[in-house]
Amino acid sequence: MAMGLIMKGLARGRNGGIFRTKINPADMKLRLLALIFGAAALVTAQKYDGPRPAKPDLPYLKHANNLVPTEASEAKEEKGKKDETTYVIAGAASTARTPLASPIFLLQTQKLNAQTLGLYRLEVRNGRREITTSPKKPMQPIRMEVSRLDSSGLYKLEVVDSLEPGEYSLSPEGSNQVFCFQVY
Description:
Elements lengths: L1 H6 L2 E3 L5 E3 L4 H20 L15 E4 L2 E4 L1 E4 L1 E4 L5 E6 L6 E2 L5 E5 L8 E9 L2 E6 L10 E5 L5 E6 L6 E7 L4 E7 L1
Parallel strand pairs: 8-15
Antiparallel strand pairs: 1-2, 3-4, 3-9, 5-15, 6-7, 7-11, 9-13, 10-11, 10-14, 12-13, 14-15
């Protein structure tokens, strides 16, 4: 009862009588903002209780409660015409496959920095996967959202836009290390 009266700008005096109080709109906004931030802190503080990656520093595709490890490899650099560089991965198709157009990955970090991973589409040519870059045509990563799930270094990576069927790779900035998968 008292809460309802206070919210309406009314309060009870010492003698039980009701009197009006002035509520500063700026104070109400601050209180509401503090309440929202408090609720957000409680939501983010919840402990993650889903499946966990078996190995650190290896992204896993999340399929409900199952985790599928991505194909870890090293891309080989080949110099092309002019300033072009082609990064090549052996094999025409990845062993890690997903039917999801917007896959979610789980990554338990130890040495790898989840924030530096970029997602790239690969071309299949001559029985291998490759991507070509040059100063005129730099590689543009596909947008992902990276969220920390707990204090142990568990991250969730979500692809923002839908992916077309094909071959893809997650790769840390400045590294030839690749984590490949296929969308079918």
